[in-house]
Design a protein that fits this description.
The complex is a heterodimer of chains A (about 325) and B (about 325). Chain A has about 325 residues and is an alpha/beta fold. Among the domains of chain A are: about 80 residues, no CATH class; about 80 residues, no CATH class. The two termini of chain A are about 25 Å apart. With about 325 residues, chain B is an alpha/beta fold. Chain B has a domain of about 170 residues: 3-Layer(aba) Sandwich (Rossmann fold). In chain B, about 30% of the residues lie in helices and about 20% in strands. In chain B, the strands form two sheets. An eight-stranded mixed beta sheet of chain B has the order 5-6-7-3-8-9-11-10, with helices on both faces. A three-stranded antiparallel beta sheet of chain B has the order 2-1-4, covered by helices on one side. In chain B, α4 crosses α5. The chains are: A alpha/beta (about 325), B alpha/beta (about 325).
């Protein structure tokens, strides 16, 4: 059984004059000890997907009643408050983009980590503080005995993100949701955090959902990739398959638009994806990417493609209609 | 020099006092920039790369005197007079040909002005265009940056991040500058928009022969866009070479570290590098020797004792390291 099985997840935000379908019928699973990368540009629904997994969507947002999020055999969306409290920070933990915004500035780092241990593992206060110090040591923060007594502002961005990770893994979660955890950090620190996550995952048998817009970052790190666009799954592949040969034209275009290391302006022109990501009001009838796609044909404009499955990969593009082996049941 | 030099910067230095208020007598100073020198040829791009706090933005701002540097010389367009010592009135006239594109497209446009007004405000103010032509001029430059002419009558909030960055670019090029400081112009943009803006900057350079100082922390973007790349660390340039040469043959251990940890598509997981755990030294208490020595895997006694000068190791390739040969 998969650790997490998401079926037909739809999250909507009801506004005064229209409804934004931020996440629109997404299905995926995460196995034990696996890293899934959710990739896409801003507004594609990556973060909303991550928030939905912990049932953290607040009004005016709502998760469609037909959605199912099965974590260890139980539907997260049907859990009551005390079950959810146990789940969040316990079995599923989360780290965010801005570490300085995730800590309370008025409390010491140590006591904030200890709090999670007290709540989820019933540890006594002194015991929890000792444990917090060990956790800071395990994420390679130097002088952990001094750092537990520090306030968040006394730590650098990279160190805070490590402390955030220590807090997240404090209760040995089964699943870690990492929402762009390295975006605000320098490259040297970024690599440290990625390495830290990798090590913790393999040591603690933890699965990771890594939300990012940075394709280069997840190569060599993620096992599988889910490419989102306008709230829809565009492609699901293993990472090597995706980087070797992205099926969806959008994935291919993205790869060609990145100025990769070793490319120079005098010999290589970056591919330009014209236009921009559609907002709710300008979402086309057909494929959401059709207006920007260089391989677009009539059918793309008129009808939205279902998710075709091609050699155990999934792709939402009419180009793969005839290569279709079985259609995923989510659409039609 | 094969090409004409547009900008010549010598020993640009800037430090800040830590004095917080009237009753604080701290003598500590933050040494943000120490003796930064470089030159940029006509129609060329110099890339400045380094971690946050290394002085990239201070370089860009102080050479345009947005912040006044402590000392140094800036010669613009082959002039014999130091731009930094010009009195304010002349400085402003001279600066019309230098422009600045800011990082954050959300904060750098006045929300209460229409886009047409934003673009033409500077040329109107300086009497370069007539008021009756303003709309026409703004439409012309909107067209150059790939926005529809109706945009002139809209407000900044009606545009996306990429479009706002295009407005920023239009506002800069309307002055027909010879030189633009591009301060992380694409870091807050999505991948698909990033390539649009990079290509636009290249097209403008080709058409108008503009020179850029391109500041970014993303190494692959800097390598791609620049003719020459300077790597900064703790307020100093530690290595400078033509883009391709630096990519193929980095000499400074810090450049090597940056290149090794930059994410790339090669199917390999990240590996930790020697020196990676360290942090940039505090700019108030710079070490006696090389600032990178603490993190450097090959540092020797000499490195901790004295500061390595930026020396030419090969044609057009300069390195500030005793160990790099």
């Amino acid at each position: 059984m998969s650790l997490l099985e998401v079926r037909n997840l739809s999250t909507r935000f009801k506004l005064i004059d229209h409804t934004v379908r931020a996440v629109d019928g997404i299905s995926f699973s995460v196995e034990h000890n696996e890293t899934l990368a959710i990739v896409g540009e801003s507004g594609c629904g990556k973060s909303v997907t991550a928030m939905s997994l912990m049932n953290l969507i607040q009004a005016p947002g709502e998760i469609d009643s037909s959605s199912e999020i099965i974590f260890e055999g139980k539907n997260v969306l049907e859990m009551n408050d005390s079950e959810l409290k146990e789940l969040r920070g316990g079995k599923i933990a989360m780290i965010f983009q801005e570490p300085s915004a995730s800590f309370n500035p008025l409390f010491r780092i140590g006591s904030q980590i200890a709090e999670a241990l007290k709540i989820h593992q019933g540890a006594a206060k002194d015991e929890a503080l000792v444990q917090a110090e060990k956790l800071l040591d395990s994420v390679k923060i130097s002088e952990p005995d001094r750092r537990v007594k520090n306030y968040p502002f006394q730590l650098s961005g990279g160190m805070l993100q490590r402390a955030m990770t220590a807090l997240a893994i404090s209760c040995s979660p089964k699943l870690l949701l990492a929402d762009e955890p390295t975006t605000a950090l320098d490259v040297t620190i970024q690599a440290q955090i990625i390495k830290l996550l990798q090590d913790e995952a393999s040591e603690k048998n933890m699965s990771i959902i890594f939300v990012t817009h940075d394709l280069e970052l997840i190569d060599g790190f993620a096992d599988r990739i889910m490419l989102l666009y306008a709230g829809r799954v565009f492609e699901q592949s293993t990472a090597p398959e995706f980087f070797d040969n992205p099926l969806h034209p959008y994935g291919e275009d993205l790869m060609n638009a990145i100025p990769r290391m070793g490319l120079f302006k005098d010999e290589h022109k970056l591919y330009t994806i014209k236009g921009q990501v559609p907002d709710e009001k300008s979402k086309p009838i057909g494929c959401a990417y059709a207006p920007r796609c260089r391989k677009c044909f009539d059918k793309c404009v008129n009808e939205e493609p279902p998710l075709f499955s091609v050699n155990s990969r999934n792709v939402r593009c009419w180009l793969f209609e005839n290569k279709n082996l079985s259609t995923d049941g989510e659409d039609k | 020099m094969m090409t004409e030099t547009v900008l010549e910067v010598k020993n640009l230095t800037k430090s800040y006092s830590l004095k917080a208020g009237g009753f604080s007598f701290s003598k500590e100073r933050v040494h943000a920039l120490s003796d930064v020198s470089f030159s940029i040829g006509k129609g060329k791009t110099l890339g400045l790369v380094g971690e946050s706090g290394c002085g990239k933005t201070t370089t860009g701002r102080s050479l345009l005197r947005i912040i006044e540097p402590d000392r140094g010389k800036v010669f613009f367009n082959g002039s014999d007079t130091n731009f930094l010592s010009l009195p304010e009135k002349e400085m402003i006239t001279e600066r019309l040909k230098m422009q600045y594109i800011f990082q954050d497209p959300w904060q750098s446009l006045n929300p209460k002005q229409m886009v047409g007004r934003i673009i033409t405000e500077a040329p109107l103010q300086h009497g370069l265009i007539k008021r009756e032509n303003a709309l026409e001029v703004s439409k012309k430059y909107l067209d150059i940056v790939g926005l529809p002419s109706e945009a002139a009558r809209k407000y900044p909030h009606e545009f996306s991040g990429g479009q706002r960055q295009r407005i920023n670019i239009a506002r800069a090029i309307v002055m027909k500058p010879d030189f633009i400081v591009c301060d992380e112009p694409v870091s807050s943009l999505d991948v698909s928009i990033q390539s649009q803006i990079l290509n636009l900057l290249l097209d403008i350079q080709q058409e108008f022969g503009t020179s850029y100082l391109f500041i970014a922390h993303n190494l692959s973007v800097v390598f791609y866009l620049s003719d020459e790349v300077a790597v900064m660390y703790a307020g100093k340039i530690v290595e400078k070479a033509p883009s391709r040469k630096l990519y193929e043959d980095p000499r400074h251990p810090y450049t090597k570290l940056l290149m090794a940890v930059a994410p790339k598509i090669d199917g390999k997981p990240v590996s930790l590098q020697p020196g990676q755990d360290g942090e940039v030294p505090s700019l108030t208490k710079l070490p006696k020797g090389c600032s990178f020595a603490e993190r450097c895997p090959i540092a020797s006694e000499e490195c901790r004792r004295s500061i390595p000068p930026l020396k030419t190791v090969e044609f057009e390739h300069k390195v500030a390291c005793f160990k790099a040969l």
